[in-house]
Amino acid sequence: MRVALPDSSLSAARRSLRAELIARRRRVTPAQRAQAACRIARNADAALHLKSHWRVGLYAALPQELDAAPLIALALQRGCRIYLPRIDRQRAARGMRFLPMRGALRRNRLGIEEPTGARALGARWLDVVFLPLVGFDRSGVRLGTGGGFYDRAFAFRRWRGAWHAPRLVGLAYTFQEVEHISAAAHDVRMDAVVTEEGLIRCTTG
Description:
Blueprint: H1 7-26, H2 30-48, E1 55-57, H3 69-77, E2 81-87, E3 96-100, E4 106-107, E5 113-114, E6 128-131, E7 135-136, E8 142-143, H4 149-153, E9 167-171, E10 192-195, E11 198-201
Parallel strand pairs: 1-2, 1-6, 6-9, 9-10
Antiparallel strand pairs: 2-3, 4-5, 7-8, 10-11
Helix pairs in contact: 2-3
């Protein structure tokens, strides 16, 4: 039985783990990153069987994140409609919207490339969302960069008893798996994680 940590201890433990995993991620060479991204794209397609009618949430990776470009290209080949997140300071309650990936992207204040359109799709109407992460465990807890944008965007999943769409799937290097991450109250758990070695189904999914 695991004892719940006080909020302050939980935050400190997650900060320490986040720093350790980010440092390890920085040591990945460009060649290793490119190879892993291609293998993960193939593994995601093989495991999930991307469908032409799917609305797929993906992300424009920062230099240190696992590159999602190969998966975006493969999903487009399969006929999927791709949506990218945009952080919206005018919508503090939600913080993130998903817009079609069309035309040029614009870099936001955090250095993340975002779509520039005006017509957003509600997060609940996506079929599958591939998430960047810093660390994960097999119960579906995702350790992100600490902004909480994805957790707020998909908070509605915590209030459902049965239907958990969209499916939330992390993209990760195998070394980002941790035996246990203490969950925070706001965490929205993932259904699965795809690594360069294959698909890991989380206990929530």
